[in-house]
Every structure is written in structure tokens, then in C-alpha cells.
């Protein structure tokens, strides 16, 4: 199982995830603010739109996974979707940030439909792109490296929005100008579409699918008969809330607590430094410690680093930014560890059930990511409602305290709770190595 992935493939795969995360991060960071403060939709209603659409979209992910598992083309199982769908998701992104200038009812309907459309088309690109990492090589170390590079690319894309998104808006008129969002969305959508297309064009699928077409009902066994996958998904549902909550609340936090939207750039730099360092060191940690131990320790330390600025920040922005970076260091570690564990559950499926089911496994991953995002938006919407948030009004002490609680204490709790399901993850390093030996032996014999 030697190295088979070329440097060009690694770069374009990372670039595809960079483009994908530019889209996702722009949407996560700005769509709620755009709805409430630009289109005049109430915070409760806007949150309801995002939550309902996200849940609906998440429920489509397993179906998309099963569709990709049954796909057979001369381009492979997953690459065709990366070649033909990016233009559609780019168009849907622009629609989401288009102020049509109609009545409040018309605006509400258009916002709902466009966001639903965006979510469905995003799934068509998202599931195949991640599933591609499981068939690009048979070597688990190469796959972990590829996933790490992909996550780093994705993080760079997310940070490009966190740091540069506000600058792009300011260049077109500022965060209070609807045209600024539309023009920014156009630029971001084109960059993302090209990046995803190139990822599909310049990669190869090296793990051939079985000749036998697996029925949908049997394919579902990949989920409910895969205990390591179920425990991992439970942990991911919770730990993903750390990033989801912060992405949704950060613009409100810097505007109403720190008093200046430009601080979003400094926040982004803290995020990128922390996440990238965490992602870079994780493969080395996994050579020494088990996946399970690295995940648990990272969650404990991540929780502590979230709580310190809440209780000891005392309005010191620099101190808060440093601790923010530390907490995201541990988020970066859990991100790589969990994705490496996800790849192991695909091998486990092949070992236990006789088929890999890459598409449906990664669709459950994207389902959890989106469902977690929906829960994050629900939490933010409920929090803004409880805090009696009114757009464009001076911040009260109660609002500032509440936003700080959401920004720091809730993510700390999520880190801790995520430990509980991962305690039941049963796939050890020694079991994984033995499983891989048996799988390779079986592949050579057929």
C-alpha cells in the first residue's frame, strides 16, 4: 500500500474543499445577518427558515450517499458530480443574497425557496467531494494525509471569509448595503465553482467499487450495523456545535460587544492560526496516541480554553483573541481525528459487511454537519429572541452578557458533552491494523 496520490491531486483536492468552504462559511457567517438586518426579517423567522431548510437538506444526504454508491460512469462514482454541479450551486448562492425588493411576504418566500435550493445543490457537491477521499488511495496513512490537507484547505477557505469577507463587503458599500452582499456572493460563487470543478477534473478514484450493485436496503446496514460509526456520529453532532455556534454568533458579537465589525478580521486570524496548527500536529499525535485518546483530551482542553476568556477576559480583546485561537487549536485536532476515524469506519464496513458504502458513510457525516448547523442556528435564533435582540439598536448590558455566554460557555459545554459518546468507540489501533491486513488479503484473493 504505497503512496499513490500525486502532489497535483493533493493540491486540487485541497483547493476543492477550499472553494466549498468559502461558500459554506460565507453563507454561515452572513446569511442570518443579511436576513435580519438587511431584509428586515425577524430573528425568530429568519432562524426558522435556516433551521427547517437545513434539516430538510440534511435528510437528503443519506439519499445522495446511496445514489453515489450506485453511480457507475467512466469518470467514477463521485467525480461526475464535481464536474457538473458546481455551476448550479454558484447560481443558487447568488440568489440567496439577492434582495428582490418586493413585499415582506414576497421577500420571505423568495428567501425560503432560494435557501432550500442552495442546500440541496450544496449536498450534490459536498457528499461526493468528501467521499472521494476514501477511494483515492488504499493506504490509510495517505488518506489521513489527504484528509488533513483537505481540512487545511477548507479551513483556509473558511478563514478567507472570516478575515476577508467583511473587507469584500466594505469594498462594495459595507455590511449595511444589500448590493455589497450580492456582488460579494457573485465573486465567491465563481471562485468556489471553479475550485470544485478542478478537484473533480484532476483527481482519480483508485479503489474500485464492487461489481455487485448493493441494494438501498442492504446499503443502510453500513449505518445501523456499524457501531464505531454510530458512536462517532453522535460525538460529531455535538462537537460540531462549537464551530457552528461561533460562526453564527461572531458577527453579532463583534458588532454589539466589541463595537466594531472590523474585529471580525482579527477573530478570523485567531481562528486560522489555531485551527491550522491543530490540524498540522494531529497526524503526528495519531502516530503516538490512539484516536480516541487524542479526541477526548482535545475536548477537555478545548472546553477549558473556551471558559477562561468568559470568566477572566475582563474586556481585554487581545487576551480573548489568544484564548480563542487556543480553543480552535483543539477544534482543529478533533476535526482531523474524527475524519480519520470516519475513514476507518468505512474499512470496518467492508470488513464486517463485505462492502464499503463510502457514499452513504460520508453522507451521514455531511448529514450530521448540516443537522448540527441547523441546531446551531436554532440556538442562535432562540438566544437572540431571549435576549430581546433588535437590529441596529444600541447594545444593552444584558445583550452583551448574553452574546458572551453564547460565544464562550455554550461551546465549552459542547466540548465536554461530545466526550460521552466517544467513550463507546470500540475500534482500537491494534484492531484497525489487523482489520486492514485481513482486508488486503481478501482483496488479493478475489
From TrEMBL:
InterPro entries reported in the protein's UniProt record: MFS_2 (IPR039672), MFS_trans_sf (IPR036259), Na/Gal_symport (IPR001927), Na/Gal_symport_CS (IPR018043)
Localization, UniProt: Cell membrane
GO biological process: carbohydrate transport; sodium ion transport
Domain of life: Bacteria
GO CC annotation terms, alphabetical: plasma membrane
GO molecular function: symporter activity
Residues spanning the membrane: 12-33, 39-60, 81-101, 107-132, 152-174, 180-201, 229-249, 261-282, 294-311, 317-346, 367-390, 402-427
Keyword Transmembrane helix (UniProt): yes
Membrane topology: Multi-pass membrane protein
CDD domains, per the entry: MFS_MelB_like
Gene3D superfamilies cross-referenced by the UniProt entry: MFS general substrate transporter like domains
Alphabetically ordered keywords of this record: Cell membrane, Membrane, Symport, Transmembrane, Transmembrane helix, Transport
Alphabetical list of NCBIfam families matching this protein: gph
Protein name according to UniProt: Glycoside transporter
Source organism of the structure: Paenibacillus wynnii
Amino acid at each position: 500500500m504505497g503512496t499513490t496520490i500525486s502532489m497535483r491531486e493533493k493540491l486540487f483536492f485541497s483547493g476543492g474543499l477550499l472553494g466549498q468552504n468559502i461558500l459554506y462559511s460565507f453563507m454561515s457567517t452572513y446569511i442570518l445577518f443579511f436576513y435580519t438586518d438587511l431584509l428586515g426579517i425577524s430573528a425568530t423567522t429568519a432562524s426558522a427558515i435556516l433551521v427547517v431548510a437545513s434539516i430538510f437538506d440534511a435528510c437528503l444526504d443519506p439519499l445522495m450517499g446511496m445514489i453515489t454508491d450506485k453511480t457507475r460512469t467512466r469518470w467514477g462514482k463521485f467525480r461526475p458530480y464535481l464536474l457538473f454541479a458546481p455551476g448550479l450551486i454558484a447560481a443558487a448562492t447568488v440568489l440567496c443574497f439577492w434582495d428582490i425588493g418586493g413585499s415582506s411576504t414576497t421577500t420571505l418566500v423568495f428567501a425560503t425557496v432560494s435557501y432550500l435550493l442552495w442546500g440541496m445543490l450544496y449536498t450534490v457537491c459536498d457528499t461526493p467531494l468528501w467521499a472521494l477521499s476514501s477511494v483515492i488511495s488504499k493506504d490509510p496513512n495517505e488518506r489521513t494525509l489527504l484528509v488533513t490537507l483537505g481540512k487545511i484547505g477548507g479551513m483556509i477557505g473558511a478563514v478567507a471569509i472570516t478575515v476577508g469577507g467583511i473587507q469584500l463587503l466594505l469594498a462594495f458599500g459595507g455590511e449595511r448595503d444589500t448590493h455589497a452582499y450580492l456582488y460579494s456572493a457573485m465573486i465567491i460563487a465563481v471562485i468556489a465553482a471553479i475550485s470544485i470543478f478542478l478537484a473533480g477534473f484532476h483527481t482519480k478514484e483508485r479503489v474500485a467499487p464492487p461489481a455487485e450493485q448493493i441494494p438501498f436496503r442492504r446499503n443502510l446496514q453500513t449505518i445501523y450495523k456499524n457501531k464505531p460509526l454510530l458512536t462517532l456520529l453522535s460525538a460529531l453532532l455535538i462537537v460540531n456545535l462549537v464551530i457552528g455556534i461561533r460562526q453564527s454568533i461572531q458577527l453579532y458579537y463583534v458588532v454589539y460587544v466589541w463595537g466594531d465589525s472590523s474585529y471580525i478580521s482579527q477573530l478570523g486570524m485567531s481562528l486560522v492560526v489555531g485551527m491550522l496548527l491543530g490540524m498540522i500536529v494531529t497526524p503526528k499525535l495519531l502516530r503516538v496516541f490512539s484516536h480516541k485518546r487524542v479526541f477526548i483530551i482535545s475536548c477537555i482542553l478545548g472546553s477549558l480554553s473556551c471558559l477562561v476568556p468568559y470568566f477572566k477576559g475582563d474586556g481585554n480583546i487581545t487576551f480573548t483573541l489568544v484564548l480563542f485561537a487556543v480553543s480552535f487549536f483543539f477544534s482543529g485536532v478533533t476535526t482531523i481525528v474524527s475524519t480519520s476515524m470516519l475513514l476507518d469506519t468505512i474499512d470496518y464496513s467492508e470488513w464486517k459487511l463485505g462492502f464499503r458504502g463510502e457514499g452513504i458513510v460520508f453522507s451521514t457525516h455531511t448529514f450530521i454537519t448540516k443537522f448540527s448547523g441547523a441546531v446551531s442556528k436554532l440556538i442562535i435564533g432562540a438566544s437572540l429572541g431571549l435576549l430581546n435582540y433588535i437590529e441596529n439598536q444600541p447594545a444593552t448590558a444584558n445583550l452583551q452578557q448574553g452574546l458572551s455566554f453564547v460565544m464562550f460557555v455554550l461551546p465549552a459545554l459542547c466540548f465536554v458533552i461530545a466526550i460521552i459518546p466517544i467513550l463507546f468507540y470500540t475500534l482500537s489501533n491494534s484492531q484497525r491494523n489487523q482489520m486492514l491486513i485481513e482486508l488486503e488479503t481478501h482483496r488479493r484473493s478475489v
